[in-house]
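2024-03-11 09:14:02 DEBUG pipeline.ingest accepted 1 chain
2024-03-11 09:14:02 DEBUG pipeline.ingest length=125
2024-03-11 09:14:03 DEBUG pipeline.predict start
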Amino acid sequence: MALRKIEASVPNSHRQLVLDALTHEGGIGHETHVGEYIVCKECENCVVVMVVCVAARAGELMNVLTNCGVGVVFGTVTSIQVASHRPNPVALVQEFRDLKMKVEAQAEGALAKDRQFARRWKRRR
């Protein structure tokens, strides 16, 4: 599962239109879409509205934005992959290394107990 960032660069006069479209038609801020936030950055001659969401939902939000005219009548819309939920390979290697050391220590402890048991058993015979 990957995360995507949707950026809409719009004129200052259309800022509220984009925000209303994302919150009402896009559903951002409602209980069904937890973890999606709208960030607005005011530039010199435009406003950049950014939303980070899962890749499966990015198409739906792009559709909402184009239906209200962003990227068609005014402004631009871009969708960029920003992160992936795949595990970090370096962290996995270290985790397996630690786990291997723990299991080997337990095995050596069990083997030492087995040797002590074998010595005692031989003495009894």
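2024-03-11 09:14:41 DEBUG pipeline.report The chain has three helices and four strands.
2024-03-11 09:14:41 DEBUG pipeline.predict end
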